[in-house]
Amino acid sequence: MFNVTQRHQEIKDIVLKFENNFLVKKWSVNGIHIWPYIRIKLYFLLVTNLNDEDKIKCQEQSSVVKGKSFYVLKKVQLVFSLIISFFKNELFFFRLKPKKVIFFGSHIHRVKHKEYYFNRFFDSMVDTHNLQDYVYMVEHQKVYDVNFNQKNIIPLAQRLKDFTIVQKLKNRFKKKNLDVYLEDYNVFLELLSKEIPNAQSLSISETDMIGWTNKIKALDAFYTRMFSKVQPEKIIFPGYYAWDNLYAAVFTANKLKIRTIDFQHGPQTNVHMVFSSWTKIPDRGYGIMPTEYWTWDENSKINIDKWAQKTSNVISKIVGQPYLEYWKQKNKDLVEEKKIVLYSLQLMPLTQMLSDIIIALIINSPKHWKIRLHPRNEFDKSDIEEYLDSKGVKRSSYSIHDSKECPLPEILTTTHLHVTAFSGCLIEAKMMGVPSVIINSVGKEIYKDYIDNELVFYLDQDEIDFKNSFYKLIEKNDMTTLVVAKNSIVNPILT
Questions:
Q1: Residue 75 domain flag
Q2: What pLDDT digit, counting tens, does each position of 387-398 carry?
Q3: Which of 77, 381, 401, 495 is 20 to 30 Å from 281 at the Cα level?
Q4: CA torsion sign, 423 to 425 to 429 to 430?
Q5: Structurally, how many domains does the chain consist of?
């Protein structure tokens, strides 16, 4: 039975056990290979279990009886809504223009840059190479009011809402053909339920998978029309997974022979089961996975290549982290004193990240601490302040930064030492010549190929001399001068 004390290597072993014992690469519903979807959901469920952050979503259903006049009104509203959506949908497709690249972005990857929000992975490339008129930026979640290259922003949720209303009417008159190949799938589900108590929350029954592939097929109609009008050479995602709208975009682009690219947005190590250890994969890859992976560094590329080389068309390329280079170029004359300790948080309970020993470090540190929130942390600045107040930590000894409001490179220029459990900020800090210390055993597993005792260190919080070792590391860095290499910013059109 899985329990929260297991570590990421054990999660990897569980996923691979199921992958290796079943004909997963042949499982398909409606012509869509479903294993990547299942495997990635399973991986994140196990990670959630590990962090003890399970949430039970409850939906209440009401059985209120409505009057006849209510239903007549609803029908009138539905017809009106259908007409409006039809014209908005047609206007959207009519206005689309040919572009070289379509980026799929998210608000969580945007930072405040001057007066607008800036996608730190994509807009740095666009601005550097003056590609504003050659790209579309599809925002698939929340859309800020003022963004860089605003005229080429596509708010996906709004467009899909109109399209779906029209499509539902059309689908009523279409005959649905069902093609299912799921050998031993019920055996798989039974074993999964025995090993993982909350496996039902995955919603991956055969009925669920038929419904999911029907959704992908419906979205395929939207993307087929969109991509046929825009005629892009590439579709680029900062993480293609976990969202049905993105899986569908990858599926359609692959079908239309458009290059599909996952652009690295965080660690891609040997225990991250989205990017690691695909032991069963078709020769041409899976239809809902990209065929190219653009990575920040050599370690990430090596990890992709280990499984990609088993296919005939999946490749990886090192392109660097463009926002780091962009920020350095824009602030090349900035000289800052390395005077702070940066602590980048993770999706873990606050009491774990700010344990008594970490609090003691903050209180007694010769350096000011900056605590950086993760984009998806469920607590905010005031929660941390109240917690640290209760522990007797003076507010003058630390400050808290929202990752969306304060660019990471700006903080790193003043950082003496970066501290983390297992944040991807470690890779970016390394690329800017800033030393990092990992203080969590999970981080040690994840970044074992990065630990060199020059720029990346590991200290065990459970060791008796942890605090002394930490302060010695600060002293060591006081005497170290690091030279940061300057790299070019990749042009996504020419790559």
A1: yes
A2: 999 999 999 999
A3: 495
A4: positive
A5: 2
Distance CA 11, CA 133 (A): 44
Let me know if residue 202 belongs to a domain: yes
For the segment 198-254, what is each residue's pLDDT rounded down to a tens digit? 999 999 999 999 999 999 999 999 999 999 999 999 999 999 998 999 999 999 999
Report which residue type is found at 163: F
**Strands (E) located in 364-453:** 368-372, 398-401, 415-420, 436-438
Domain enclosing residue 454, as ranges:
326-478
Q: Tokens at residue 370, please?
A: 């900056």
Token pair in block for residue 234: 């590439």
Q: Which of 26-35, 146-155, 173-182, 378-387 has the lowest mean pLDDT?
A: 173-182
Instruction: Write a three-state SS string for 252-316.
Output: HHHHCCCEEEEECCCCCCCCCCCCCCCCCCCCCCCCCCCCEEEECCHHHHHHHHHHHCCCCCCEE
Q: Are 41 and 204 in contact (CB under 8 A)?
A: yes
d(CA 251, CA 289) in angstroms, rounded, equals: 7
Task: Say whether 110 sits in a helix, a strand or coil.
Answer: strand
